[in-house]
Amino acid sequence: MKKYEDALYKKLIDNPFVYHYTSIEALFSILEEYRRNGLYALPFRAYSVYNTNDPREMELGFDTVKDILPAFEKSYSHNMNLSEVYENPEYETECKNQCFQKPEDGLIEMGSVPYTISFACKRDFLPMWSMYGANKGGVCLKFNTGKLIESLRRGGQPCFVYYTGDEDNIIRDYLLPILYISDVEKINRTLSIEEKIVNLSSLCDCISPFVKCNDWAYEAEFRLAYYEHYKAEVGLKIGGLPVSLVKHKIKEYIENIPIRAEALAEVIIGPLANFPVVEHVLNKELIECKINNIKISPSLIQITK
User: What are phi and psi of 51, to 5 degrees?
Assistant: First the structure.
């Protein structure tokens, strides 16, 4: 665990702040819910990986683990041999099906679905304003990365996104080893092939939210990942036999992911927003929320309307 924490800390030196681009309405909604919850924590939404801007994310994560795992297992003293799954096309296909299902009408019978909250490592970045900041009329929330990680609740997993082709492979060097070793510590017997498929699928689930195609590297993204687990449920029984399986609706997002207010360092107002008006209203909101010492700044980008 220490090696992974050290890797995060090394990244934090270069990225002491991360930025969440969103709409003004979303920010006011967060602050309103913050007051309603008794000033406990800023409530954020984590969105399903099935709703990200790159539909290939889960498959890239699976392929990344496939590239890394065999060599790692050979070098590691305790060998669960999960990479045995890759030696048989049928086993690999079954693992893929468990790892990134193709929901029919948004429904699945069982499995784990990752949800993420995304941040950028770049401040006042025009592509991010355009894509996520209400078309340049929203806000950018600046967070102290260290305090953001310290404030995590509900078991969120933080990591800087690895883009395929990066020389600095935080997945290979730190995240996969710590997740693998954590599983080894829970296992004191030989695994069946079915159990290996389940464990490998779980490992891929935990890593996939942090792998993206190099085409998206300009975003320089940092993510918090959360997981919803869906168990197989049997429907009504006739004569002791199940009639149907109950399917689960995959949520577009999960709500009320708590981030402590002290992690928020600054609010930057978008280049096409009315800065004096937004600043005035936001100041009043922050005072009512008892959130102090938050700097409110205009975007440095100048755009002719």
Answer: -120, 20
Q: How many residues are there in the chain?
A: 305
Q: How far apart, in whole angstroms, are the C-alpha atoms of residue 197 and residue 179?
A: 16
- Count H helices and E strands in the chain, helices first: 10, 17
Report the chain's C-alpha Rg in angstroms. Answer: 22
Query: Residues 227, 266, 153, CA angle at the centre, nearest 5°?
Result: 25
pLDDT tens, position by position, 235-293: 555 555 554 556 667 778 888 888 999 999 999 999 999 999 999 999 999 999 999 88
DSSP label at residue 247? P
Contact 175, 210 (CB under 8 A): yes
d(CA 293, CA 231): 45
The tokens of 144 are what? 């102290």
* Residues 195 and 35 sit within 8 Å (Cβ to Cβ): no
Single-letter amino acid, residue 281: V
- Tell me how far CA of residue 214 lies from CA of 57, 110, 161, in angstroms: 11, 31, 10
Q: Are 134 and 24 in contact, with CB atoms under 8 Å apart?
A: yes
Burial tier of 129 (Cβ tally within 10 Å: 0-12, 13-18, 19+): buried
Element (H, E) at 266: strand 264-269
- Is beta strand 233-234 parallel, antiparallel or unpaired with respect to 245-246? antiparallel
Q: What single letter denotes the amino acid at residue 133?
A: G
Q: pTM of the predicted model, to two decimals?
A: 0.85
